[in-house]
Amino acid sequence: MSRPTVAIHKFSSCDGCQLAFLNMGEGLIELAARVEIIHFAEAGMVDPDTTVDIAFIEGSVTTAEDELRIQQIRAHSGLLITIGACATSGGIQALRNLQEEDWCSSLYATPDTIASLATSRAITEYVDVDLELWGCPVRSEQLLAVLSDLLHGVMPGKLSGVMQEPLCQSCKRNQQVCTLVSLGKPCLGPVTRGGCGAICPRLGRDCYGCSGPLKKPNSESIERCFEGLGLLPEEISRRFKMIHSIHYQGEQ
Amino acid sequence: MDGEQTIRLEVPVLTRVEGEGALDLNIKDKKIESLALRIYEPPRYFEKFLEGRSVDELPEMVARICGICPVAYQMSAVLAVESLFEGEVTPWVAQMRRLFYCGEWIQSHSLHIHLLAAPDFLGHPHAISMASEYPDEVRRGLRLQGLGNQIIALLGGRSVHPVGARVGGFHRAPSKSEVAQLLVEAKSAVVDAEALLRWLVTIELPQEEQNFVSVALSEPDAYPVMGRQIVSDNGLDLPIEQFEQRFEELQVPHSTAFHALLDGEPYLVGPLARLNINNNKLHSKVKVLCGELGVRFPSRNMFDSIVARGVELLQMIRESVVLLEQYQRPSQPWSEFSPKAGVAFGATCAPRGMLWHRYQLDAEGKIQSAQIVPPTSQNQARIEADLYYSLNQFGLDRSQEAIKLHGEQVIRNYDPCISCATHFLDLRMKQV
Questions:
Q1: Residue A118 at interface with chain B, using a CB cutoff of 8 Å
Q2: CB burial class (10 A; 0-12, 13-18, 19+) of residue A182?
Q3: Which residues of chain A are within 8 Å of residue B71 when distances are taken between CB atoms?
Q4: B425–A116 CB contact, under 8 Å
Q5: Taking CB atoms and an 8 Å cutoff, what residues of chain A touch B111?
Q6: What residue spans define the domains of chain A?
Q7: What CATH number does the domain located at A5-158 have?
Q8: What's the CA gap between B141 and B195, in Å, rounded?
């Protein structure tokens, strides 16, 4: 691929994954020389409708307008890559999917003026996604690895190896004291994707699962383990339902 | 007819702001008929799903409101909880929170100056284009942004959604060698930040005086970052617990974020407001440089906001150097707090203005209700008042393109963070 065209689109999110581009430092200038950034509103480029080779999607689908917009983006994008928790699983705002009450009408004085669906859903529930980059937030290194592959004419793997293995593996390689077994904290490391560098255990605290669940997490086993640590069922449930509320539970 | 001219100007996507907003403007016969900063970013209902959560989960959850200012959300939240619970933080924790916060201001201000605001004044559509004409300036800005990120990561493990903060302090204290490495970079950043300020004062900015009320927190002997009093340049001096007595939030049809008013009037929060009230609390060397460069605050010109960010950025780098130089590793990086039922208030100065939190907590430390008032919703009414005034001054008979650009510049002066602003709902109507 010679100087591929790139778009970065935002849906419902905190904008934190777009920072994985804006926080690249001088690498951002180099990146802009290697790829042509067509659309990236936060950085000042606006052209959402032009066909691009690679589209990065931040955020989840939470409005009727979003539902249409993601279809349009899919239609004029070569590779479509979701970045971060909101785009890959619905994000923290998907906690609304778990309850019956319509928060919008119960809270806004004039809910008619608020365009908002009752759910927050991942991009993959609407269109085909070519590659998912998990993390809350996604890291610059993840983006660079993918872009580097593409610039060298290599199709990036569905997931890099380290993101397919449990976070525990990173801790073992770091020779980190186990927060679950040795410190007795309810660590989600055994059921969470690695790749973040196990930053929580490095700070002596339990992983809270921001990189998302493994493909087949053994959640029942970890639930029993948490019970053994004295957590109440309600506390265990809260542990699983936070950044990636809809994908973690053992019962699914 | 009869020379009557109607201009309908829509800016459907505001660029170089955080989050999604638009500007709708109707001009008839050279008069503004209607004007709306339309914020359509959908709400995310944070205040709702915080209900039933433990305060131990608060730092992780509220961080997700904003990727650009997660430290502000974490700090307002833990300060609120600690003000109600039984316990006391150590001086080390207080110092490290200030350092943590310095990192966020450095990162956010640098990002805003270089990637969002400066291209407007230098005739470029974006920073990448600006880098071809001003390569050294843009690279210096990105380096400063990187230093801010490193300071956050020192205490938080990473800069976006850091994981180090907790009620009572931090999960881990950095080692002296980690601190020593960062100190070297912080010291060299003083040179960069001074050069940045010298550069900013050479940029030609529109000159336009306006009347507005500046609002910020106040700290007794320091430039305000965290504080228990809200002050204004109009005589306000209010404990944060009494915020609701004078400040009011309203839903307006064109915005998913609430508008806030002080005594029924728009007001300003953010770097210019802070500096207008607290310029005498700057570091002595920052004051000297400002004097040398003819930088004077208070200012009534909103376009001076970019200079105000430069001044604050230098202040925070100087403070970081002092805090890193004095660093001692403590035996314990946090202290225990025991839960207590009641209402908890916390407020801090996010990079773009005061961020106020209120939580109703039960005896086990679970959240019964939450209310969060972010800076951008506070500034919305002020932005609209500013646009109305500033576009009239600018000249409504100018080209659509010129009016559009001027309107966008006015809005960017406030560094609006729309992602923050729309994640809240007024819970007063449901409080028991």
A1: no
A2: exposed
A3: none
A4: no
A5: 22
A6: 5-158, 162-240
A7: 3.40.50.700
A8: 10
Instruction: Tell me the pTM.
Output: 0.94
Domain membership of residue B149 (yes or no) is yes
pLDDT for B253: 75
Confirm whether B94 is domain-assigned. yes
- Name the residue among B42, B139, B425 with its Cβ closest to that of A26: B139
Does the residue B72 lie in any domain?
yes
Q: For chain A, how long is the longest CA-to-CA vector?
A: 57
Distance of alpha carbon B238 from alpha carbon A238, whole angstroms: 37
pLDDT at B4: 54
CB B335 within 8 A of CB B78: no
Structural domain range at position B291: 46-430
* Count of Cβ atoms closer than 10 Å to residue A33 Cβ: 10
Taking a contact as any Cβ pair under 8 Å apart, which residues of chain A between 74 and 113 contact chain B? 91-93, 95-96, 103-104, 106-110, 113
Tokens, residue A107: 């809270």
Please check whether residue B21 lies inside any domain of the structure.
Answer: no
Which amino acid is residue A164, in one-letter code?
Q
Mean pLDDT of B150-157: 98
Q: For residue range B216-250, list pLDDT tens digits in order.
A: 999 999 999 999 999 999 999 999 999 999 999 88
CATH number where B264 lies: 1.10.645.10
- How far A106 CA lies from chain B's nearest CA (Å)? 9
- Local confidence band at B423 (pLDDT 50, 70, 90 cut-offs): very low
Q: What whole-number distance in Å separates Cα of residue B257 and Cα of residue B421?
A: 5
From the list A22, A46, A202, the residue facing B111 with the nearest CB is A22
Residue A106's CB is within 10 A of a number of other CB atoms, namely 12
Contact A7, A48 (CB under 8 A): yes
Q: Which of residues 196-225 of A touch B (CB under 8 A)?
A: 196, 199-200, 202-205, 208, 210
Measured CA to CA, the distance from residue B259 to residue B122 in angstroms comes to: 32
Summarize the confidence of residues B351-373 as an average pLDDT. Answer: 96
Which CA distances in Å does A240 have to A194, A212, A219, A245, B103? 16, 10, 9, 6, 31
Identity (one letter) of the amino acid at A229? L
Q: How many domains does chain B have?
A: 1
Of B18, B42, B126, the CB nearest to A15: B18
**Chain A, window 224-243: residues with a beta carbon less than 8 angstroms from a chain B beta carbon:** 235, 238, 242-243
